[in-house]
Amino acid sequence: MKKIELTRKPLLEISLSVSFPTILLIEKELPISFQEKIRSKLPIFKDGMSSSNEISIGIDGLPQSFSQRKFRNYLFLSEDSKVKVSLSSSALTITSLCLTDLLGFAEYCTFVINSFKEAYQINYFQKLAIRTLYAFS
User: Which residues, in sequence order, are CB contacts of 36 under 8 Å at separation 6+?
Assistant: First the structure.
């Protein structure tokens, strides 16, 4: 099998999401301590509201109920907006459009997660998910 060397890396975007037990303080107060810890790399702050929808499907395959939940969501962005950290009361997501090598992204995630753990004294995470977006031509 012939080895192919790519001139352009095909990894366009990478995200790490971690969920944790709900921290009510995040919903109630601005995340000042967390922002101070990450502000050197993520100086832009945006405060907003997000929503999630839930549909319950019955055995017959028909919708039984629908609910919508609104929650506070904080965004921290790099100066060029290519790295984004999203924080809600039960999840933290780190997304990068520029850290396309896994080692560089892992180092960035370690910085953000350690800062989060220090700010909120969290001991464990419930779920971790990594999402990648590749482009091939």
Answer: none
